Structures are given as C-alpha cells and as structure tokens.
Amino acid sequence: MDVNSPIATGLSALVVEGVTDGGDVVVVTARTRQDAVPCPVHGTPTAKVHGYYGRMVADVPVDGSPVVVRVRVRRLVCPVLGCRRQTFRERIAGLLERHQRRTVRLAGQISQVARELCGRAAARLAGLLAVPVSRSTALRHLRRLPVPQQAVPQVIGVDDFALRRRHRYATIITDAETGRRVAVLPDREAATLESWLREHGSGVEVVCRDGSATYAQAVRRALPGAVQVSAQGACVLMRRDE
C-alpha cells in the first residue's frame, strides 16, 4: 500500500499496511514507525519495545464513507536506570491525542463546525458529512477550542441580557462599530464591570451603554476619561457618520 495514496493522506506519521472498503466504512490498518521516541520523564530517546497495543480511531471521511484507523502502537522501555516510568506508550503528535477516539484533524473539523453552528445544527451537518456526532459531543469539542486573544477596541458597547428572565442576568461587552463580542461577564454588577474595565479597558475611549446607573458608575470609576454615550445616542451618531 502506497502511503502517498489519497486514503493515506494525512496519516504520514504512520506506516499504512492495508485499506479495506467494507461498504459502510473504510478501515485503514496501520502501525507506528520504528523511530526512537524520547522518554516523557528524562527525554532520552529509545526504540526498545516492551510490547504493543492497539487503538481504533475515527478519521475524516473519504468519498462520503466514514474512515476508521486501526493503529498498532508501541510501549517502549526507558533506557535510564531508575526511571520512575520504566515503560511508556509512544505518542503520535499531530495525529492522535491521549484518550481520544478521533484523529486530531477530524476533531478539528468537528470543532470548526460546532463553532459556526453550535450544538444541534452542528450535529445535523456533521451527520450529512459522514461524521455522526451527538449534540453533546459537538458542544464538548466547541468548549475545547482556545479563546482567541483579541484587542479591546476603542469604542465598546455594554449591555445586559437575561440568562433566566427575572432571576439571573449577565453583561455583554461588544465592539460598538462591528458588533463583535469582546467579553461576557457573569452578572450585571458595577463591581464586576469596573474590575474588567480596569484590567482590559486601558485603550477604551468611548462606552456606549443603556440607561443603567450601575454601568455609568462603573465606567466613571474605572475610566474617568472615557466618553459615555447612551445606546440611543450611539445610533444617532452612527446614522450621522453614514
């Protein structure tokens, strides 16, 4: 089997030994290479095999069919005498993560679909793409995505919204010019907003807010030099700019 064939693309870290098309699923049989692997404790490379174990993970579909990869992975012996690990399982960086049943690239695709569509819609689309997942699985992949670090804009909007109407509220901070979400605070207390503005709002010049005196007080204490604009006034200013 040629590892450069279309079915093996993306599995270059493995030695592909065979591919079987069972009609409902494509099964790829592979093993890890014989390269030396560093011990996770001492970092000393070793290729001495203590034993083998098998892993079965899902990979990206091919021609509308799900793909399952059966991998034989080595358990290696650390060459350092007295190592507390003695033996360890080799890791396949960039392809397989510990305790995961999907390859890194398949998990990445599910995460991106979940980021765009969230739970139920992501699960429906993933099923059409031959990657059946539940709503809970899609949300779990979404929660694993790192939160991007974005600069706080000079003009922000501050407003509250109901997590549970008449019982629990939160605060959302947005880019007032683009509508992009900047942060979500767990409540609508002045102290919470003030703390966030002191930590992240050094470059904020204008704050568009509703008529809440709580928000006004928090902005005045945290950013005494910032201009506060009511939500209605902000709409008028935006129409004038247009």
Explain what you see.
The protein is an alpha/beta fold. Helix content is 27%, strand content 33%. It has six helices and twelve strands. It has helices spanning 104-117, 119-128, 135-144, 190-200, 213-222, 231-241; strands at residues 14-21, 26-32, 37-38, 45-46, 49-62, 65-77, 87-89, 155-164, 168-175, 181-185, 206-209, 227-230. The strands form three sheets. Strands 1, 2, 5, 6 and 7 form a five-stranded mixed beta sheet that branches. It has a five-stranded mixed beta sheet with strand order 10-9-8-11-12. Strands 3-4 form a two-stranded antiparallel ribbon. α1 crosses α2 (119-128). The longest helix is centred in the middle third of the chain and has 14 residues, at 104-117. The protein is elongated and about 70 Å long.
List keywords for this structure.
disordered N terminus; 12 strands; five-stranded mixed β-sheet; elongated; 6 helices; disordered C terminus; 242 residues
